[in-house]
Write a structure and sequence with these properties.
This protein has 23 helices and 5 strands. It is mainly alpha-helical.
Length: 552
């Protein structure tokens, strides 16, 4: 009878799996459609309307606009959220935190103000954040269809959909979402959701705006002789450049912790305005405003523009992006890396007299982008999809491979990890708040006998924190008998407890593990910023044995 029951159950599960898989595919497609519509709105409002009007405005207004946009962004975000977009996607991928829905609208409004005002950032940042937020929220609501951890894959699918739509490059979106969380690995479990969401998002976006090449470059024949040597040289230069840009832009983002908002906004407005004036004097175009890809691409492939002008343009764009990041602008650095790569490629192209038109700028963008974000496959695919020229792929692969080696452990993404980790490694990287357990907090004046009467032989943990106005120590339950033997029935918790250090709730769990090892203890107390006890961490909660998922 048991064998018969098992066969019936197996057939039932097999019969229900197909409809459930169909529902999951439908959810992935819905995410793609919704994200495609949201990204279309970002594109239309921020770039096609606001930024387009700005580029037609007088020079004096163009010079003031980035500062005004950054000021509006600060007001919109203040007290509500941070400017982080793609970084937030990588962070929540690893720590399992929520992208809170109430933060989405302020970030999108901040992106419109930053990009529409001419901030030298990319629209892929808010697109990734919007997609990841929508995917995660829908995944959390549909756990019956996707499973308890399905929202993680749907978060990556939403991010892929955001990139696919804004660049009209679905394969790039998939690879970017899978590669970005890691420096030397990919988020493999999100592949199928990302494929469907990216394709659907792309179709939704192009149904509104039509199909066009994001990065038009002249067509040319690649002979793969001198070009391979040039790609190696360009890869070396790109790796060095990407390391420098990662340091520069990382320092700019870090200004929010050291410099007051007024100073940052004033400096950002001044630098943005000065770089624009210099750009107009240099070439006559406003290539430091907004994403600027098309204008910079035209500069990079124009043989009449001298090398010193290209060097100056490279420096001006890097400064304009730094100003936007330092002042708290909302946007991504994917496109700024593309822009810097185009200009770097033009500089290296000057060393070769018979280069195919547009080749070196294109492989330069792949090498700088791939090294900066640690996404080599996405960078090469971006070249193939946005230029429509497959012959550029081989030298782009060579240059990107070399630039990856030169990049080392650097990255423009703040929360990337080197490669996929085991469950224990991931948990040790989390803040203590993610592994703390809520237990009763004892008062020093309580009697030990009262504690025994309350919990008997089933205590909630091996030790309980002792706290009055602040944390005082740990009551090791095994020591209560000793206190009763030495002091008698009047022994208090304060007399029996141990003076054991506690850890703050925001430190990494690995710090708690280190202290536990030094104390040879399987439990340690956790306190908040006011030194008030809130719970304990045990060896069992630290390792996550109770939450083990063999599919993770």
């Amino acid at each position: 009878m048991r064998a018969r029951f098992d066969r019936i159950r197996a057939k039932t599960e097999e019969a229900t799996e197909a409809p459930r898989a169909t529902l999951r595919f439908g959810v992935y497609a819905v995410v793609g459609m919704v994200v495609g519509l949201v990204v279309a709105g970002i594109q239309w409002i921020a770039l096609d309307v606001v930024l387009h009007e700005l580029l037609e405005a007088p020079l004096w207004f163009q010079a003031l606009a980035p500062g005004l946009g950054l000021a509006v962004t600060f007001v919109v975000l203040r007290g509500r959220t941070t400017p982080a977009t793609s970084d937030d996607y990588v962070r929540v991928y690893h720590d399992g935190d929520d992208l809170r829905p109430r933060q989405l609208v302020p970030k999108l409004l901040g992106a419109v103000a930053t990009l529409g005002g001419g901030g030298a950032l990319g629209a892929e940042g808010p697109s990734v954040y919007a997609g990841a937020s929508i995917g995660q929220r829908l995944g959390l609501r549909l756990t019956s269809v996707l499973g308890p951890r399905g929202h993680r894959a749907l978060t990556s699918a939403g991010a892929a959909a955001g990139v696919a739509a804004i660049f009209q490059a679905p394969a790039t979106g998939v690879l970017f979402a899978l590669e970005t969380p890691f420096q030397r690995d990919v988020a493999r479990r999100a592949l199928i959701p990302a494929l469907i969401a990216a394709a659907t998002s792309y179709l939704t976006f192009v149904s509104i705006f039509g199909v066009h090449s994001y990065l038009p470059v002249p067509r040319g024949e690649v002979r793969l002789r001198d070009e391979v040597f040039g790609a190696i040289l360009l890869g070396l230069c790109a790796g060095i450049t990407a390391r420098g840009l990662a340091g520069l832009w990382g320092a700019a983002k870090g200004l929010s912790e050291r410099v007051s908002p007024v100073v940052r906004l004033a400096a950002g407005a001044a630098v943005s305005g000065l770089t624009l004036v210099a750009a107009r004097a240099l070439i006559g175009t406003s290539f430091t405003l907004g994403p600027g890809v098309e204008m910079v691409a035209e500069i990079a492939v124009d043989p009449t523009i001298g090398l010193w002008v290209i060097v100056a343009a490279f420096a001006l764009r890097a400064l304009a992006t730094s100003a936007a990041l330092g002042a708290g602008g909302v946007g991504g650095v994917f496109i700024p890396l593309v822009v810097q790569g185009l200009l770097l490629g033009r500089l290296v192209e000057s060393l070769f007299t018979d280069a195919a038109p547009g080749l070196y700028p294109v492989i330069g963008l792949a090498a700088v982008l791939g090294a900066g974000y640690r996404t080599p496959l996405a960078a090469v695919m971006f070249v193939a999809e946005t230029t429509g020229q497959a012959q550029f792929v081989i030298p782009a692969l060579v240059a990107t491979a070399v630039s990856q080696a030169v990049m080392g452990e650097k990255s423009v993404a703040s929360y990337q990890v080197t490669e996929r980790e085991g469950m224990l490694e991931r948990r040790l990287r989390l803040p203590v708040r993610n592994v703390v357990i809520d237990v009763p907090i004892l008062h020093p004046d309580q009697l030990v006998t009262d504690v025994i009467d309350t919990y008997g032989d089933a205590p909630p943990a091996q030790a309980l924190p002792v706290c009055d106005d602040r944390y005082r120590g740990l009551l090791m339950l095994r020591d209560m008998a000793m206190a009763l033997f030495e002091i008698g029935p009047d022994a208090t918790v304060g007399q029996a407890m141990h003076d054991v250090p506690a850890v703050r709730v925001d430190v990494p769990a690995v710090e708690a593990a280190r202290i536990m090892g030094e104390l040879d203890s399987a439990v340690i107390a956790v306190v908040d910023a006011d030194d008030v006890a809130i719970g304990v961490v045990t060896a069992l909660t630290m390792t996550g044995a109770l939450d083990y998922d063999p599919d993770e």
